[in-house]
Amino acid sequence: MSEATPYVLILYYSRSGATADMARQLAAGVESIPGIEARLRTVPAVSPTCEAVDPEIPEEGAVYADLDDLRHCSALALGSPTRFGNMAAPLKYFLDTTSSLWMNGALIDKPASAFTSTSSLHGGQESTLLTMLVPLLHHGMVYAGIPYSETELLNTQHGGTPYGASHVAGARSDRPVDEHERALCKAQGKRLAKLALAMHKMRQEETP
């Protein structure tokens, strides 16, 4: 990947694989738009154990994010399974380390969005998405959901909200992402990519 190429950072935590699958669908949507790329990153689990026990590089899947991934992105898609109507602790822990970016205004005027997965249909999808946008607003990011011009929002029988893509994983967390949920993930990625390119150009024009 060229450093000059703008990218959408797709930053997620996934326990059972559904959120990771959604992240890949968003990435496909991003990369269907010429001139921008997707960068998939995850975060390590957290535990009450004080010593570091996780490897520095995950055995599979996306590598762990660092602050530079966030600092240099042109847009951010934030993904997490629902934990009692909120984002999972590992993702919140990572966001809590971004004070230096906030102090420098590194994310101001960059578009952002969120996506989530729950076990049950009414398991807190919308509250999770709404609470995930709060730190993004504190960073000065511009939040972008999914408009109802995406007709899957009207047809879906499981996941999908105007606040961001969502998925119902089932009681055993083994239900695959379905056709409508995949389409909404890709639509969200496409929209974020288009906004990222437009606002990237705007920021470049404003730079003295």
UniProtKB/TrEMBL annotation:
PROSITE patterns attached to this UniProt entry: FLAVODOXIN, FLAVODOXIN_LIKE
Record bears the keyword Flavoprotein: yes
MF GO annotations: electron transfer activity; FMN binding; NAD(P)H dehydrogenase (quinone) activity
Any single Pfam family the record assigns to this protein: FMN_red
Bilayer-crossing regions: none
A GO cellular component annotation in the UniProt record: membrane
Keywords: Flavoprotein, FMN
RNA-binding recorded as keyword: no
Cofactor: FMN
PANTHER family according to UniProt: FLAVODOXIN-RELATED PROTEIN WRBA-RELATED (PTHR30546), FLAVOPROTEIN-LIKE PROTEIN YCP4-RELATED (PTHR30546:SF23)
Similarity field: Belongs to the WrbA family.
Protein name from the UniProt record: NAD(P)H quinone oxidoreductase
